[in-house]
Amino acid sequence: QQRVFERFYQVERARSGLARGTGLGLAIARQAVRAHSGTIVIESAVGQGTTFTLTLPMVEVRARG
Question: Alpha-carbon torsion 25, 28, 33, 34, what sign?
């Protein structure tokens, strides 16, 4: 499952039903999440679907002035 986060990785067309894409979307998402000290997790069950969970830390914002 972790291979889906690799650049240019694509699942087999027969499995996904999709014929388009570059294989960059999830790699970019993972880099963005990591840049913000977060995590991205994938859970998948054949015939049921896939869930991606993104977790980002809360940041305290203080007003200036």
Answer: positive
